[in-house]
Amino acid sequence: MKLKKLTIRNFRQFYGEVSISFSTDDKASVTVIHGENGAGKTSLLNAFKWVLYGTTDFDTNNQNILSERAIAEAGQDSPIIMSVTLEFDDDGFAYTAHREQKFVKGAGLHAESLGPSVPLLNWINSAGLSGRSSNPGSQLNQILPEDMHGYFFFNGERIEKLAYNSASTQVREAIKCLMGLNILDRAEKQLKGPVIRHFNKEAKDSSSGNMTVLLEEQSKLTDKIQQKEDEIKGWKSTLSEIDLEIEAIDKRLQSIEAIAEKQKRRKMLEEQLEQIIIDKADASAALNKNVTERGFLAFIDSQLTGVKQYLDEMRIRGEIPSKIKATFIDDLIGLGKCICGQPLEPGSDCVMALESYKTTLKDNGVEEQFMTLFGHMSHLQSERKALFANINESMTKLTELDDRRMNFLGQIDELGEKIKGVEDSADLEERRVGLKADSRRLNANCAVGEHAKSDWEEQLKDKEKEIEKELANSNQADLSQRRKQLAKEVAETIGEFHEAMAHQVRLDLSKKVDDTFRKIMKKDYWAEIDEGFTLKIFKNIEGHGKQPVWEKSTGENQVTSLCFISSVVNSAKERVTKSGGLQKGGIYPIVMDSPFGALDPEYRQKVANFIPALADQVIVMVSKSQWRGEVERELSKRLGKQYTLTYQKPNPGSDEKFEYTKLEEGFYG
């Protein structure tokens, strides 16, 4: 995909019609758009998203995106058209994507939308034939999936979030989307959902009696499990976004000098709190296992005492064990001599008397069982004491963990109040408190949802056993049931294959990320995508080996994130030339806003040198201060086109009453 031209009409501060043509030269692949803060760089970035998907990243989303000046200059009740057109090439086709929305002028600066935005997509193929897509939204999403847009059209100052510890979900999803692995995800979901529901219905329609009831219950359980899985997935996705925002707030709070130490202390306490939660879960699991497997010992004390007492009485009466063993008598007769020294002649009265004792002795097997049972009784009593000791130990540990948890929570709340008291941090802290509350609520929802899903899955297993039994008793060969079982097995296999593929791609990307990272970083660090799909930086400490770098600067996070994106783009490009695989790949441009703001001069120079290699086409938006010096020297080597955004503000006494942005080709610094 190569971007050729973007035309904006009455979109945000762009009044009238404004166009930008991008460089498509392979040797001069960089287009630079200059603009100060507020000049419209973010609006340009969102124009791409709006024309492709009909949405924006503004705080108010698609509200207030119509130019105020266009509204003001329109006549009462007259129509106003807002539109964005993007011309691009992809896979031998020349496309023109156009989206427009019509409004009607109301009172003052109010304009009423006349329906949703309308997308259009025209194309011309390599043979010169042209056409118009009957489903433009779907086709655009196939060319550049909406889930992927954030990795190609991004704010450079925010992209650092990819390197946050809480960004593992985003990294995992990026890998799946950009490498085309989401096709496996969709296949698995399709099999588990509509396909199985279809076979359930088919089976019900061809059954009768008790089988119909069982299949109806099975179908209801399947639907409930799927619905709960979707809910949990949504909650976890929201949780991931919340965790990212909390981590971003924490970094901003830590940058405020007056509260930096307090924030650092709170972060440490929260990490310890997370470990306490893990330890509590482990202790509770151990306690539950102990009670489940050995809890019966608590209720057999009287039985153990009774059996042991009865065995003791038998022993006291001399019934068990015997005082003389039969083998001992046989040995004496064999030796021909009694223990008193008298000779034992064969057939004598003495030998006959000894042999008569053998008939009164108990069976040796019974004696062995007596000894074994007596030993078991003693062992069970010892185990019973150990059970209570272990329960007491677990309860003590849980109480200690609860006390530590309450202590930490108190300290965290106290630090929160102190942080809130600092003027610069008050709003951030208030937002953080709200996000933490949302996080607790969603975590609770997930826990309850997982428990309910687990119960339904157990019920479903039991129901399926009943169905199998019913089929066996009725000698029915239910084709629908066999098909459904096959669909489940295929879905499970696809799920396992999906995860294996994602991890293989992770390993490949991790190496690419590290290769790029080492070329840019001035420290002796290296980068990895770990097994949990978290972007991490490591270093070697003498005597301790490989250690994670916990305290990373904004610049280091930004460099790590850029290395990840470049590796993904590079891998996607490589996949295009490989046939026969599931991973589709693709050739994508990168449009980035302000990627140099948090970098020191040395990193600016290295990143600027590295940016042209990110993709076959790169569009960079920078302020004058970010452009001057190292960035200008490096990017000029691959510079194809330049534009300047100039913000025009209304001045008292002038004819200009509304703000707007003027766009001119070239650099006017």
UniProtKB/TrEMBL annotation:
Residues 5-276 form the Rad50/SbcC-type AAA domain. SUPFAM superfamilies: P-loop containing nucleoside triphosphate hydrolases. Keywords: Coiled coil. It comes from the Bacteria. Residues 211-286, 412-489 form a coiled coil. InterPro entries: P-loop_NTPase, Rad50/SbcC_AAA. This is AAA family ATPase. It comes from Pseudomonas qingdaonensis.
